[in-house]
């Protein structure tokens, strides 16, 4: 490999013109260190994106305490809209890295999240701020959810096939920790006057305390600025990953794209959907429990499990891990019915909480294993097509990397829809029947269908 193909420290060029991760000698001598550096800058950028994406789940519940008279339906709308815009934006975001480059796009997509955070901090301090303004801000927070698609696509280019599951599991799993980090940090931040110099005045509460709701949004701004700079100056772009939008669009014709989207909706969609709806669901079933003291545990376990799911799949095979995982998800979905109160009486919160922790665990594991499957499947298909038409190995590897990255991003967009669908399903079930059991029956059937699909399409084929 030419010495100039890898940028030296202090060089103005961050573009790597030659990248051969499948070459063991290259990977050990140079590739591993470069890929690791890009991964560990990507992780905090994605973690902060998840913090911003879920920001309204902490802010909306407190808006009545600072003088806003929004209805409950309006508050639920504000918490749901970031999931909708995040899911839709993941589609274009999934194609951005090959067009603009991973370093530039990571820096840009992280830096623009400062806008909704700053705006929200000022908006919550003025009780005359119209609901329409909060709708716009919540939709802008959805840009943070879209970062997942481009981040995962970017990291997939850096690692060899046998290490992609672990790398994507670390990036996605630790990135998903942003849900728990936000749920831990935001309630603490609103209790102290941190940004008084920047206009953070707070709102007096009936018990004499002060609520600095603006801090829930502003506390992320310095960190976003810091890691925007880290991405710009510390990450790399791979010339071999460059591809036009036209070169990436054929992935939409692949049947496996839609099959894996269905499976990923069951794993990551469950994770983000349960994260958004668990606290509210718990409050309706066990109103005497202070669920906000425990709500962060589920997303924490799920995020950590995602990293493990990718690494385990690299060793045992993504299909095998995914199949077993869906079986366990179906079992615990059925077990949840035994923990619910009937007619407002009975039920066990401890059992309910433990079952949900297992659902979070399996949703996280499955998110990692399904992403590992995507990498293997699309790389294999692209290599086979290139070989049939007589293309060179380098051309085949480039096409495989491009299609894999596009598939990872697009499938992640489908999975994000769960962030809206699951809380909405719980709410609709409660309105129609007074119980979430109806929604859980739908989820149970969904997981069983995933067991059948995974076994029939992937499990029976070597």
TrEMBL record:
One GO MF term: secondary active transmembrane transporter activity
Gene Ontology biological process terms from the UniProt entry: nitrate assimilation
Swiss-Prot/TrEMBL keywords: Cell inner membrane, Cell membrane, Membrane, Nitrate assimilation, Transmembrane, Transmembrane helix, Transport
Stored InterPro entries: MFS, MFS_trans_sf, NO3_transporter, NO3_transporter_NarK/NarU-like
Compartments, as annotated in UniProt: Cell inner membrane; Cell membrane
SUPFAM superfamilies cross-referenced by the UniProt entry: MFS general substrate transporter
Entries under Pfam families matching the protein: MFS_1 (PF07690)
TM annotation in the entry: 39-63, 75-93, 105-125, 131-153, 174-197, 217-235, 256-279, 291-309, 321-343, 349-379, 400-422, 442-458
Membrane-topology descriptor: Multi-pass membrane protein
GO CC annotation terms, alphabetical: plasma membrane
Family from the record: Belongs to the major facilitator superfamily. Nitrate/nitrite porter (TC 2.A.1.8) family.
PANTHER family with a match to the protein in the record: HIGH-AFFINITY NITRATE TRANSPORTER 2.3
Protein name, entry field: Nitrate/nitrite transporter
Organism: Kosakonia arachidis
Lineage: Bacteria, Pseudomonadati, Pseudomonadota, Gammaproteobacteria, Enterobacterales
